[in-house]
Fold:
Amino acid sequence: MDRVLLQVKKRKDRHRLEEWLSKSYHVLLPDHEHPLKEEMDLVVIDGPSLKNLRPKVRARRKAEQPVFLPFLLLTVRRRGSMPARHLGRVVDDIIVRPLNEQELLARVANLLRMRHWSLELKKEHDRVMKLAVTDDVSGFNNTRYLHRYLDRLIEAAALKPVEVCLVFFDLDNFKQVVDGHGHVLGAKALREVAQTVHNALGPDDRLVRYGGDEFIVILPRQSKQEALVKVARLRQAIAKTPFLHKEGIDARLTASFGLAAFPHDAKDKRELLAEADRCLFESKSAGKNRITFAELEKAA
Structure:
């Protein structure tokens, strides 16, 4: 049920509005200590309240954007007065005394219809934005997300120093799965690997499918030593998990890892990606199923 806040000073007006609106809506009465902080879908506000709360009205409308939070101004007709001057800036419609129940209900319903449309548009926008940064195969993040997220982390580090560890890994024997069971089951195995890795990550960590059977893990605000412990868990989780179990295949996979840290090993995003990729290459060259990190070219 839609929630309508009555930010109206006159008790008589408030009671009448409550009587008319409560048949169809959940009516909220004003909180004088914390005005306009309620969770509502529409606000009916009178002239004196608007005059006192104008900055709060603007702030609340801005906070709701891009969702539309409608304000209906309850006013009186006076000679020389132009209540319509508020339209579009702080209120979205006007109702003039003497009040009429049918007119009120029609204006409220129209404003709430516009709010519902804006909520649906916001929902659709969020869905499209999520699809834009989601990898089709794994269901996790794609490279578009990788670059946006890394850019934000590294830009923030310019204001407040913070470590960012980045891990490249790929599957050592994945081609055997595809050759033996086909691309459809190969794609399912990739999804299962991604889920296995995700389950071992923390809430701030991010998993990205980089391409093929290659993935990136971003570990913000973690030292290289902390990241190394976590990567060891990822390596173990992949190695001990039988993939495509429901299909009766129980494929065994291992992975090779390369780890680098910002700003210790790289001064920008490009260098960080390149250094982690180079460490991954070292792991593959040294026998696979291992972790190489930039400092002193150590392998675990």
Remarks:
- Residues 128 and 242 are 34 Å apart (CA to CA).
- Residues 101-132 form the longest helix (32 residues).
- DSSP finds eight helices and eleven strands in the chain.
